[in-house]
Each structure stands twice: as C-alpha cells, then as structure tokens.
Amino acid sequence: MPHVSSKKLDNKFSSKLFGKLLGILGRAQNGNVLPFVADELFTDTEKIMLAKRIAAILMLDNDIPQQKITEMLLMSPSTISKISLKIELGKYDSILKISKQEKTDMKKLVCDLLTVGGIMPPKVGRRYWLKNL
Q1: Which of 118 and 85 is assigned the larger pLDDT?
Q2: Model confidence over 106-120: pLDDT tens digits?
Q3: Does residue 28 sit in the same domain as residue 64?
C-alpha cells in the first residue's frame, strides 16, 4: 500500500489540490493524453491499487462471490467486505453508473486480470474460472 504522510494538510488547501488534480485529469482525458498523464503521475503500485479497487467494485456489482474476488485480485477478504458494504451504502454509484454506460465486459476484465492481458495462462485449466463465476 502506498505510504501516506501522517502530516495533514489544511482542509481548504487539500480541497484546492484535489480540484487541481481533477482538472488536470479532465483536460488530459479531453486531449486524449490521459494514459500518458497517469503514467507520469501514478507509481506502478498506485495504478495497481486503483485498478484492483475498481475491478473489485465492478465484480461485486456483477454478483461475483467475494471469495472468488479475493483469490482473483489477491486482495484481503476484509478489503472486499468493506468495498461490498460501501456499494450497499451507495458510495460507488458514480463508478457503477459510468461502467454501465461504457458496457464494461466483466468476463473479459476478469480474464485479463487472471492472465495479465492474455500473456499468462489461467491459474487452472483453460478458462476454468468462467465456469465457476
């Protein structure tokens, strides 16, 4: 997990910084350079952490069992449970709405996660995981 400093920023300043971050990401998306900006801005650990979190949210929304998600994403059961509770409370509604608009193909996403985009074979047999979801 990325290290977060124990020294807290002023809330007003922190909000301005976050607004600036969102502005940069929005302009990068509009200019079709978001992947480049993300590579410059986020470490590999941060990218993996965010990608796993989004994958867990989408998988839970698609009724994939928590134990399967834990195994597939190599995340702790407590983290998956917390995300599941937050989904029930409506915390990730914006993410879920966007993913539905983009018609995210969950089976392809899960396959890509398990096989590193098709580079590695699935853990057990060819597409074994699809039968058990």
Answers
A1: 85
A2: 666 666 666 655 555
A3: no
* CA atoms of 38 and 25, how far apart (whole Å): 8
pTM of this prediction?
0.71
Q: Please compute the mean of the pLDDT values over residues 23-29 and round it to a whole number.
A: 92
Q: Which domain holds residue 15?
A: 10-41
Residues 6+ apart with CB under 8 A from 83: 53, 56, 57, 60, 92
Q: Looking at the structure, do residues 58 and 82 belong to the same domain, yes or no?
A: yes
Q: Which residue's entry shows tokens 């057990």?
A: 124
Q: In this structure, what token pair is assigned to residue 26?
A: 């929005």
Together in a domain, 36 and 64: no
Residue among 34, 42, 54 nearest 2 (CA)? 42
Helix, strand, coil percentages in the chain from 3-state DSSP, rounded to 5: 65, 0, 35
- Average pLDDT of the residues of the chain: 81
Task: Look at the chain and report how many structural domains it folds into.
Answer: 2
